[in-house]
Amino acid sequence: MAMHIVVGECMVEMSGRAEHLYYQTYAGDTYNTAVYLKRCNPNLDVAYWTAAGTDPLSQGFLDSLVQEQLDPSLVLRQKDKTLGLYLINTDCKGERSFAYWRSDSAARQLLGVLHEQTARNIVDQASSLFFSGISLAILSDDNRKQFLQKVTELKERGCRIIFDPNYRPKLWQSVEHARDYTDKAYQLATIAFPGCDDHKTLYGQADLDAVKHHVQALGVEEIVIKNGEHGVQIFSGSQHYIEPAYVVKQVVDTTAAGDAFNGGYLAARLAGQNEQRSARFGAKLAAFVIGHRGAIVEKATMADFLTLNRIV
């Protein structure tokens, strides 16, 4: 069966549940996408490519991969490193604020897994590969170049490359540096998930048309533009689809809304759905996720959602 690979960093998440009390779990932009992709389309083989330590927190992360039925074969274990950590608080409207401790996280060394023949074979035979701007930002310049070279090789072999810019200014040495690598990633992407907010911050682009023209000029075939409460617009070949955002009665926590949309959209697309139906499913999932606390909704709770909302 074809392997679908998601690349990036999973961190220890500490989310506030009551005054001075925090709940510990695991999350991160691409990890969230991998979890929702697999949960929504269990028929897919999905591997998460990252690095972790050998300490108890890292082992807990490996256990979470197994629990989510994600293939752990592409996790590099390092004795002298551990996971990054972030603390999240939400206000009464569900908007979040973060504090991060990730400057020396194990995930920055994720390319080291390619030294292992078995892992390299899995990567080389991938059917699709998803990564984000954060996946790039945590790497050194040399490793970014090596990673994009590997992505180039995969694309030439027919692998579907999927990219979400997910711009985080603090992870880049300059905005110019971030633009350069984001454009390089777009040039390799088959499917891209640009966000209007990211493009406004990164490129100074004020509207959706500017985002579309920028990404189209870089050769992306399927452009899924996320525009918050204004919904999603998709440009694929000569087709243009608009999918409005779903109204949420109560926003509890906006963490992972975009990640959930990505996972839901890709789950539906890889199940054979067209762009518009995939966007509709992704939007429903994102609306469901922001009605719950934390990045990853509990499995039992999500099972009820999936019973009512099927991708096929």
Detailed description of the structure:
With 312 residues, the chain is an alpha/beta fold. It has a single domain, classed as Ribokinase (UDP-N-acetylmuramoyl-L-alanine:D-glutamate ligase, 3-Layer(aba) Sandwich). The protein is built from 11 helices and 13 strands. The strands form 2 sheets. Strands 5-4-1-8-9-10-11-12-13 form a 9-stranded mixed β-sheet, sandwiched between helices. A hairpin with a 5-residue loop joins strand 11 and strand 12. It is globular, with a radius of gyration of 18 Å. 45% of the residues are buried. The model has no long low-confidence stretch (mean pLDDT 93).
Strand order of the largest sheet: 5-4-1-8-9-10-11-12-13
Q: In CATH's first tier, which class applies?
A: Alpha Beta
CATH topology: UDP-N-acetylmuramoyl-L-alanine:D-glutamate ligase
Largest sheet: 9 strands, mixed
Q: Give me the secondary-structure category.
A: alpha/beta
Number of strands: 13
What's the architecture in CATH terms?
A: 3-Layer(aba) Sandwich
